[in-house]
Design goal:
Layout lengths: L1 H32 L7 H10 L12 H9 L3 E8 L6 E7 L2
Antiparallel strand pairs: 1-2
Helix pairs in contact: 1-2, 1-3
């Protein structure tokens, strides 16, 4: 029973940390975009790295947050362009007005 309680406690702590972290990341993404410059997820991630929010310029630091902010209607997609690394078409985001 004690082992089960410890696992539950660890799981709830982890869930709580993830929620706080997600909120913080979303705020960081919005901070990057608030200058009005439209960016791709990779460009947002690079700016997050330059600002010291993340320890690497990995697009996965920004992409899930942009999707979440899109769902919340805090950012919008304004177009698309070819990613300079993958050569694939990617969305361009800005803060919703």
């Amino acid at each position: 029973r004690e082992k089960q309680m410890n696992e539950i406690t660890r799981a709830t702590r982890r869930e709580s940390f993830i929620k706080v972290n997600v909120t913080e990341r979303e705020a960081q993404v919005l901070e990057i975009l608030k200058d009005g410059i439209e960016r791709t997820a990779r460009e947002v991630a690079e700016e997050m790295y330059i600002a010291g929010y993340t320890n690497m310029p990995d697009r996965n630091n920004a992409s899930p947050r942009l999707t979440s902010l899109l769902d919340k209607r805090q950012v919008v997609i304004v177009g698309r362009k070819t990613d300079n690394i993958t050569g694939k078409g990617v969305a361009i985001y800005r803060i919703a007005s």
